[in-house]
Amino acid sequence: MPDQPLLDVRDLRVSFRTRRGSVTVVDGLSFSVSPGEILGVVGESGSGKSVSMLAVLRLLTSPNVTVEGQVHFRGRDLLTLPDKEMQAVRGREIAMVFQDPMTALTPVYTVGWQIAEQIRAHEKVSRKEAHARAVSLLSDVGIPDAASRANAYPHEFSGGMRQRAVIAMALSCGPALLIADEPTTALDVTVQAQILDLMRELNTQGSAVVLITHDMGVISQIADRVLVMYGGRAAEEGPRRAVFHGPRHPYTWGLLDSVPRVGGPRLRRLPTIAGMPVAPGSLPEGCAFAPRCRLRHERCEERPQLTTDSFDGAHRDACWLPDDDRASLRLTSRAAATDVPDMEREATP
Amino acid sequence: MSALTTSTEVLLRATDVTKHYPLRADGLSPRRRVLRAVDGVSLEVRAGETLGIVGESGCGKSTLGRCLVRLTELTGGRVEFDGRDISTLSTRRLRPVRPGMQLVFQDPQASLNPRRRAGDIVAEPLLVHRYGDGAAVRRRVAELFDVVGLAAAHLDRYPHEFSGGQRQRIGIARALATNPKLIVADEPVSALDVSIQAQVLNLFADLQEEFALTYVFIAHDLGVVRHVSDRIAVMYLGEIVELAETEALYKEPAHPYTQALLSAVPDIDDGTLTDEVPRERIVLTGEVPNPVDKPSGCPFRTRCPYARERCAVERPRLTMTASGRHTACHFPLID
């Protein structure tokens, strides 16, 4: 089967036990990643995008966390794998890059040493050979004069160089899947462009990528497929072009419309999404977005499932609005979101 | 609008402003070195307009913002606010000028005292500037809460009890308290989620209309700056490399750095931009040089794809090209 997914997550549920009871932050999330594709995961803070990826990698180790569901990766369920085998998967088959590269690097060893250590943890190679590979990886990710820079400490690198070093480390074992959590958020746009190019290049070499970001522009530039998350659930999912050219979920409309753009017409007022992102722990019974949705109706009391519409099997969304006139509904909703006469009051937390 | 606030009246004029930070000499670098955060910036802010200042981290945009309202002492140059040179005024003489110019900061978490109630935070500038008796201050604070869209019921809450967007509203209310003419906003929306960012940007637009405010809006997000600004100054290594009307700048950048910056922004392709010519992407190599060791001549020449010999020798000044564009480049992209 050519379309056998590399990673297949089914009904993932993550909850934290807190003093105020159990708080569900990822609520029945399903998605898959095919070999060689770039999946963009987008959503605002608290939408569960980072936590769900940490859960996939079994990096949520606190005893107060419960993770349920299935995470199939190359025919194994990662959630039931023995710790020892999971360690071999992490770093070797699935690598992860975080927003702040300083958290992934230890300040007391040289960058080259850290990459070499990572190689030696997964493969039987000599120290010397590992170091040589670290140098060539650093040069692959575009660090000039890699042989001498490998002997530098993380604090001697700039932010962009550190992120490159972390990516070099992630690539050291040729992972089948790279999970990158906001890898460019802390970087300037010109450096961001360099890092995105690097991710693209790595992708053409065969690694699948899950890119988590809040920046719709980044997703629009790089992703093959898009997953929009809200309140720990999938709101919309589909091929990039379908999602950006014909978004279906009112939350996706809001995300796209409220971003001030560098091209196109300039608006005096931006269309807004009313209220503020739902806090984990206060998820409504029905549609998570309903309290902020300008088109909510009775049906929204009931939780919508991610369903395909009649036109495009790959494009799915979780919304009760009728499938056939979403485009005109979007215009109505946008008009309502722009002509707010007074300042919108955010709901109190 | 009154006759005074025509678009040509200059509210703030900066002339050759510099801010240098001497670095302490130590064993590793015995030579006394100087970090040139702002290096010879001249600009005018017209009454009622929004001047955007954009640039990457470390370009000196925040330092410039602080210089403009004299939150930090200048190393050189002068700043005139409302026709008065404020760069040399004593602290005491400056005090009556201060209410006219206020700041909104990036991180409301850091710029609001966590131990004070929201109402007291907003009342602070009123007390400092002797607004009136307790009852008058309370009335004014309630009014300000209403203006920025906060509920009066929340006057007694502490900053941590508000969301990020609401905290930024508290910071805005505080800035508005003294009825300023000028507000310098330093990355006021960059810490907010996009949906909240749009709400706060709309609030800025509404307030400008309602109170005829003048804004200096500092940001790194080129979409945000385009949305709010009438004119934009692009900064690189402490210098303004280009200053232009917003539309002109985005349509046809005159400086190679502006061009590269704009081309690096990942824009959303939602199918509506198909009629436009896709911009050529210029990926700059390397990173911004250290402002301690600025390149000779043009600060951008080390990364500029069009750099020639002259750029290393002679520092370009911000001058007007034949077509009326202001750019600091020996070989501007448009004449």
User: Multimeric state of these chains?
Assistant: heterodimer
Low-pLDDT runs of 5+ residues of chain A are 341-349
Number of strands of chain A: 12
Q: Order of strands in the sheet with the most strands of chain A?
A: 6-7-8-3-9-10-12-11
Summarize model confidence as the mean pLDDT of chain A. Answer: 88
Order of helices and strands of chain A: EEEHEEHEHHHHEHEHEEHHEEH
Major beta-sheet overview of chain A: 8 strands, mixed
The first-to-last residue Cα distance of chain A is 49 Å
**Shape estimate of chain B:** globular
Q: What is the overall shape of chain A?
A: globular
Question: How does the helix and strand content of chain B classify structurally?
Answer: alpha/beta
Main β-sheet description of chain B: 8 strands, mixed
- The low-pLDDT segments of chain B are 1-6
Give the proportion of residues in helices of chain B: 25-40%
By DSSP (H or I, 4+ residues per run), the number of helices of chain A equals: 11
Strand residue percentage of chain B: 15-25%
Cα Rg of chain A: 21 Å
Summarize the structure.
The complex is a heterodimer of chains A (349) and B (335). Chain A has 349 residues and is an alpha/beta fold. Chain A has helices spanning 49-56, 83-89, 111-122, 127-140, 146-149, 159-171, 189-204, 216-222, 240-245, 250-257, 326-338, and strands at residues 7-18, 21-33, 38-42, 65-73, 76-77, 94-97, 177-181, 208-213, 225-230, 233-239, 307-308, 316-317.
